[in-house]
Specification:
alpha+beta; 4-stranded mixed beta sheet
Length: 179
Amino acid sequence: MRDIRVAKPYARALYEAAIEQNVLEVIINDVETFQELMEQSEELVQFINTPLVSPQIKSDTFQQLFSESMHPLTINFFKLLALKQRERYIVAIMDTFTSIVDEASGRVVAKVTTAVPITQNQEHQLIQQLSAYSGKQVRLETDTDEQIQGGFIVQLGDTVFDASVATQLQRLKRQLAKG
């Protein structure tokens, strides 16, 4: 809960600065790139989260790592987080920033869980169906979980569509137990 309280003002500030400087698309790309780096590099995650490295060293490292590939606004934002000792919230801040961008664009996120990865064609069909249902543009976040055995689970805002084989088997089991 604390992560969200810290993340919102920083994410909102980054969004508003990007709008003000007319570089929102560039900043969105920087944020996506950074999120991918965080997923791929355990070393980066450890560096950001370690309290043993001084804020100034973290700030300087952000400058060195990203000066060639990211917009100065993004780099300055990361440096600010380091100097304010808020870098450990960077994942929550980036996620909140993405949510703010989605909301401002009239886009909604649908989290889809399947037993096996879905194809691009299935993803496209699902986006169309969920867009028609919600009346908004849908951005999919996909995940795989073998525990659901088959089918899918979609979370669209507060609504959950559970068409997983595991859930259907549980329902059938309860019905059989009732007689």
